[in-house]
Amino acid sequence: MEATATLTLSSSPAGARRSPARPTVASLHLRRVPTLSFHLRGAQSPAAFRALSSPFPGCRRRRRGSGMVVRAEMFGQLTTGLESAWNKLRGVDRLTKENIAEPMRDIRRALLEADVSVPVARSFIESVTEKAIGTDVIRGVQPEQQLVKVVNDELVQLMGGEVSDLVFAKTGPTVILLAGLQGVGKTTVCAKLAFYLKKMGKSCMLVAADVYRPAAIDQLTILGKKVGVPVYSEGTEAKPSEIAKNGLKEAKSKKTDVVIVDTAGRLQVDKAMMNELKEVKKAVKPTEILLVVDAMTGQEAAALVGAFNVEIGITGAILTKLDGDSRGGAALSIKEVSGKPIKFIGRGERVEDLEPFYPDRMAQRILGMGDVLSFVEQAQQVMNQEDAEELQKKIMSAKFNFNDFLKQTKAIAQMGSFSRIIGMIPGMNKVTPAQIREAEKNVKFMESMINVMTADERERPELLAESRERRRRVAKDAGKTEQQVSQLVSQLFQMRTRMQKMMAGMQGKDTPDMENLAESIKAEEQ
Ligand SMILES: Nc1nc2c(ncn2[C@@H]2O[C@H](COP(=O)(O)OP(=O)(O)OP(=O)(O)O)[C@@H](O)[C@H]2O)c(=O)[nH]1
């Protein structure tokens, strides 16, 4: 069946106003079946159009002839909700705690309407608020555009940040165990995954371990033929764990790369189902255990992923039927609620309709504002570049001062803890946690002294280098020793020298001799 179908309902304008029953029925369909587009007749007048469209929040509504086409777009509802938040910020010159309070309420409402759970929505709002107020104004960027960017970044984080790739076994066949409730699309996913893996050049085998529904084995066999992949089955009499084990043996003998095990679904989570899965898991030691969940079940899907993870320990989720989901609560909540990533999404009934889950692409789709995002990113880059150029000029003219020093250390702090940054630098992963803690302590230590310097002293460190009185005062105000202040001043000059040498080396210029100053401070102390 095509994923898009058109359902035509007739309703007179007057009738629609008196009783919204018909559209309500249609809206139920909209949630349950993968029907995306409705054609409602009888929406000639604006009032009738409004009455008919009211049960379809977030859906695109377009007049067509005497009727109206309602289209449930993926996350349409959330996109519409967020739009009202941006609109409320038009005309403000910067984001403040006060002026973002109402847009934040809109975002919270939009998330709850998208079926995101209350705690997830709450923590999302908290981090967006904190980041929105804390970010510097970027020249040329409107505050509402800046908020779009913050919301985008937080959405990406909420959905897991990075794409979570399938893991393959180092030796022998990779076993992927699929679990899930009845009707979520598990059997279809088996074929879709096999199709996807075949395209990657992997050989696959499907194992029919759903012994309760004979039709499931037939369905898998048909799908296997369709994608050109062998299906291992032992009928309905054998135990699922035995079938899986034998299937794996056969795959090994045929040197198959990936074995995908289809298991039985139940109407709800029960002990028998969990025990059976545990047995299969024990028998074949899967590389991946993926729970297939239906996107249209919203936050229930997220809770289910959490429950399965606690019970059997899963490696991720596959979210199906996203094509019929206009709300998006499941996609947004799964990672946050369960701690497990969404690895794939299903967006239709065809075998081609499976793709890896990219949090960043999904966030862009929700916001529908790709152009705004790239504009803000570019503006940020320009700012960073200008900052860098400014710094370069200062270093070359020997003006790198305590303000720059503080700015640099704060920028590092803003980017995350020292430990993360250090871990990201190639070749630096051998730094011990104790060394990292020491580095963090050092930054705080230096900051406490810089904070008590006068504006003049920060800008012209020479003042401190030349005056013992000043160094004594700073030491007293910061509760440190004179020697510690002197050390800091020397450090800044040494840093200047090193940086200048580095830059000059890059630009082929000579460096002014700055080490003398640092030496003279030392001499004065002795
Ligand atoms: N629109 C849409 N339909 C899907 C998607 N995935 C599966 N379906 C449909 O959902 C229905 C159920 O799919 P199955 O694969 O049989 O589900 P199952 O989880 O194996 O069901 P049981 O074997 O009963 O546990 C079928 O009609 C599929 O075509 C999807 O991503 N989008």
Automatic annotation (TrEMBL):
GO molecular function: 7S RNA binding; GTP binding; GTPase activity
SUPFAM superfamilies on file: P-loop containing nucleoside triphosphate hydrolases (SSF52540), Signal peptide-binding domain (SSF47446)
InterPro entries referenced in this protein's UniProt entry, alphabetically: AAA+_ATPase, P-loop_NTPase, Signal_recog_part_SRP54_M_sf, Signal_recog_particl_SRP54_hlx, Signal_recog_particle_SRP54_M, SRP, SRP54, SRP54_GTPase_dom
Annotated Low complexity bias: 10-23
SMART domains, per the entry: AAA, SRP54, SRP54_N
Top-level taxon: Eukaryota
UniProt EC number: 3.6.5.4
Segments for region (Disordered): 1-23, 504-526
Pfam families registered for this protein in UniProt: SRP54 (PF00448), SRP54_N (PF02881), SRP_SPB (PF02978)
PROSITE patterns: SRP54
Gene Ontology BP terms: SRP-dependent cotranslational protein targeting to membrane
Entry keywords, A to Z: GTP-binding, Hydrolase, Nucleotide-binding, Ribonucleoprotein, RNA-binding, Signal recognition particle
GO-annotated cellular components: signal recognition particle, endoplasmic reticulum targeting
Keyword RNA-binding recorded: yes
Catalytic activity entry: GTP + H2O = GDP + phosphate + H(+)
Domain SRP54-type proteins GTP-binding: 341-354
NCBIfam families the record matches: ffh
Family: Belongs to the GTP-binding SRP family. SRP54 subfamily.
Protein name: signal-recognition-particle GTPase
